[in-house]
Design a protein that fits this description.
heterodimer, A: 304 residues, alpha/beta, TIM Barrel, 2 domains, 8-stranded parallel barrel, two-stranded antiparallel sheet, 12 helices, 10 strands, 15% strand, B: 100 residues, alpha+beta, Ribosomal Protein S5, domain 2, 2 helices, 33% helix, globular
Chain lengths: 304, 100
Amino acid sequence: MIPRPKPERFRLRRTMIFMSAQKPGLIKDAYIYGVDSIMLDLEDAVAENQKDAARFSLYHALKTIDYGDTEVIVRINGLDTPHWQEDIRVCVAGGADGIRIAKCESAQDVRTVEEHVLAAEREFGVEEGRTLLMAALESPKGILNAYEICSASDRMFGVAISGGDFRKCMQTKFTPDGVDMMVARGQMLIAARAAGVQCFDTVFTNLNDEEGYRAEVMQNKAMGFDGKSLINPKQIRLVHELFAPTEKEIVQAEKIVRAYREQSAAGVGVFTVDGKMIDIAFIPGAERTLKLARACGLYEGDLV
Amino acid sequence: MQILKPAVAGTLESSDLMVTLEPGSDGIELSLTSSVMNQYGRQIKKTVLETLERLEVKDAKVTVVDKGALDCTIKARVECAVLRSCDKSDKNIDWGGVIR
C-alpha cells in the first residue's frame, strides 16, 4: 500500500489529464508523463454498464501505484445518477487527493458532496478534511452560480469549465477565437479569483490542430487561468512551456521585489524600475511570477 | 461467497484481463491463458486463487484470459466478477475490508 501524503489545497496545477479509471493500460503508469494532476474518470469515459468495474480498478490503482508528486483527482458521476455515492466512498477509501464534482450547478451540490465525503472519511478512518474538492461547471446555471460554488467549502481548490456540455447547452460550436465561451470563461475566472480558488480551462479535442491548440493555450494564459484540462499526454509539454514565465519576466520580477523591499524599508512607497512606475500593487504579481518560475525549475533565488 | 450466476469482468485490451465465472460444484476449476504465460503464469494463478479465497469462493468455474495485467488489475477484475455474480458489485462495497 502506498500512503499518499496529505494533499495541498493550493499547488501548481498547470495540466490535468483525463484518463478512464476503467483502462488499466492508461492508469498503471500515468506518473511518467510529468503532468501536474491526473484525473481518473468514473464519469463519461466509463460506459454505463462498467461503472462498478471502474471502481474496483480505481481502488486498486490508488492503493498500489505510486504516483509520486503527480496529484490524483477522481471525476465522479453527476448527482443526478445512481453512481455518485459509491464513487465518493471508493475515492475516500482509496485515498484520492481530490474529487471533481461533475455538472455542478449550485453551492448545495458542493455541500451535498462534502457531507458524503466527510461520512466516508469517518467510515474509512481517513483524516477528516483530507479529501479536496473541485467543481466542473458544465451548464449556464453552473456559470451563473460560479461564485457561490467556488466559496461553498474549505475543501474547494478550484473550478473548471467543461466545454462540450456547455456548448451543447448554449447551442454553440467550438470557434477558434473562443468567442463562443468568452463570457463563461471570464465569469468563471472572476468568480474563482473573488473566492480565492484556482481556475482551469476545458479540453482541446482536435489533437491534429496544433496551431489551434497553441492559440487556445496562449489565450488561457492571457485570461489568467491556472491550468488546462487535457485529453492526451502529447498536450502536456506546450502548456508547461507557455505557462512558464520567460527569462525576461523572471528578471523583471526579481528586480521589482528586490527594489520594493529596499525602498519600503527606506520609507518610499512609489518608485521606478527601468523607467516604469512601481508601487505595492505590483508586488503580488511579481512574487507569483517568481513562485511559478521556482515551480517550473527556472528560479533558484531566495526572494520567495 | 457463492457464485450464483455467470459473470464477466475486464476486457481483452493490453494490460487487462477478462475473468469469466460460472457456478461450479467441485472446488475451483481454473482455466488460464496469458500472453505472458511463460514468465508470469504461476504468479497470475496465485493472485487469482488468493483473491477467490479471500472472497470465500469455494466452488466455481473460472476462465481467465490475461493480456499482461498487473496484480492490482487481476485483483480488481476477479473481485468485480465475483460481486457481479452475486448482484453486489454496485454499492456498499467493503473497501479496505474484504476488498483490499
